[in-house]
Write a structure and sequence with these properties.
Pfam families: Metallophos (PF00149), Metallophos_C (PF14008). One of its GO terms (molecular function) is hydrolase activity. Residues 41-256 form the Calcineurin-like phosphoesterase domain. This protein is α/β, with parallel strands linked by helices. It has a single domain (33-351), classed as Purple Acid Phosphatase, chain A, domain 2. It has helices at residues 65-75, 96-110, 121-124, 144-149, 185-195, 219-222, 233-242, 347-351, and strands at residues 6-14, 20-29, 40-45, 82-86, 115-118, 162-166, 169-173, 204-209, 247-250, 256-263, 266-267, 274-276, 283-287, 305-309, 313-319, 324-331, 337-344. Strands 6, 7, 8, 9, 10, 11, 13 and 14 form an 8-stranded mixed β-sheet that branches. Strand 4, helix 2 and strand 5 form a beta-alpha-beta unit. Helix 1 (65-75) packs parallel to helix 2 (96-110). The chain starts with 5 loop residues before the first strand and ends in a 14-residue tail after the last helix. Bound molecules: fe (ii) ion.
């Protein structure tokens, strides 16, 4: 595959009588080469699910929002280069016909741009199956349909964590349904993914995971007296800080929320729609309002919670070049931008030392 080349293709079925039945002709553009300086636009959301316009054929009818999200993405497809669906893909819970409905719904997108996925609780979790959580959420799928329905460049697709490069972006995709804590294989992968990128060529370093390993105001975390998946940021914040992760994004909580640049619960910089200069701390974005019924937020607002929108929506990252990145959050009902920020940072700014991201120096010898 050569970078940026537009390929056209058709999928056919070879019948027993030797005849081939062909589908529609589609086309896609091969990705830019790692580090390429060109306009690159990546849409990110979690928890989409599927639904029928007429409400028919519903197994678990709580993903009506997915229709609007799918519609907005299809409508704007010529301005989208890649889609990342970060877990809770179709909520099939073991009913494979639901996967067929889901792939039919996203087919206009997935046939044209890379449709990348991450593992969520509704893909993987089942008691005694090796998942980090022993809930019934996958309905016994244990990740098998998700791993086979979609390609991910994972070394081990059962583990489902991987890194992927798209032009000036490096994405490190974790799997929150397997253990991520220090000492685990996944922790080593995360550190390797974050540390091995050449930021001069690929300045935009994005961490993705399904459950909120960073910060969330969801009431279901609040009820447990927490604002994250327990052992999430405690385990990983040193890595995000050390390797200067620009943005960490999650699903699982059905709605939108954005933090200030935050480290150890403290805003290292004021929440803003414009950041420039040296890295201060990672901005955490929850974008789990793809389509499944909305969550609720605690009445009390944490200091790190800079923006919230309890509606269906998705995020779009636009890398204009090596020094300017735009994050937009759009509502699915009308495509309107409800929150956004830009990051202007050149390579010297990435190298600059801030809180806990350079080796400490001492005069002692
Ligand atoms: Fe989830």
């Amino acid at each position: 595959m050569s970078a940026n080349f537009r390929y056209t293709y058709r999928i056919g079925h070879w019948l027993f009588n030797g005849q081939i039945v062909w589908g529609h002709q589609n086309s896609f553009k091969a990705p830019p080469y790692p580090g390429e300086d060109s306009l690159q636009r990546v849409v990110i959301f979690g928890d989409l699910g599927k639904a029928e316009i007429d409400g028919s054929n519903e197994y678990n009818d709580f993903e009506r929002g997915s229709i609007n999200t799918t519609y907005q993405l299809v409508k704007d497809l010529k301005n989208i280069d890649m889609v990342m669906h970060i877990g809770d893909i179709c909520y099939a819970s073991g009913y494979l016909s639901q996967w067929d409905q889901f792939t039919a719904q996203v087919e206009p997108i997935a046939s044209t741009v890379p449709y990348m996925v991450a593992s969520g609780n509704h893909e993987r979790d089942w008691p005694g199956s090796g998942s980090f959580y022993g809930t019934l959420d996958s309905g016994g799928e244990c990740g098998v349909p998700a791993q086979n329905m979609f390609y991910v460049p994972a070394e081990n697709r059962e583990q489902f964590w991987y890194s992927t490069d798209y032009g000036m972006f490096r994405f490190c995709i974790a799997n929150t349904e397997l253990d991520w804590r220090p000492g685990t294989e996944q922790y080593k992968f995360i550190e390797h993914c974050l540390s091995s990128v050449d930021r001069q060529k690929q300045p935009w370093l994005i961490f993705l995971a399904h459950r909120v390993l960073g910060y969330s105001s969801a009431t279901f975390y609040g009820a447990e007296g927490t604002t994250e998946e327990p052992m999430g940021r405690e385990s990983l914040q040193l890595l995000w800080q050390k390797y200067r992760v620009d943005i960490a994004m999650y699903g699982h909580v059905h709605g939108y929320e954005r933090t200030c640049p935050v480290y150890e619960n403290v805003c290292v910089a004021k929440g803003s729609d414009r950041y420039s200069g040296a890295f201060t701390a990672t901005t955490h974005v929850v974008v789990g309002g793809g389509g499944a019924s909305l969550a609720e937020y605690t009445a009390e607002r944490a200091r790190w919670s800079h923006a919230q929108d309890l509606d269906y929506g998705f995020a779009k990252l636009t890398a204009f070049n090596h020094t300017t990145l735009l994050m937009e959050y759009k509502r699915s009902r009308d495509g309107s931008v409800r929150d956004s920020f830009t990051v202007s940072r050149d390579y010297r700014d990435v190298l600059a030392c801030g809180v806990d991201n350079c080796a400490s120096t001492t005069m002692a010898s």
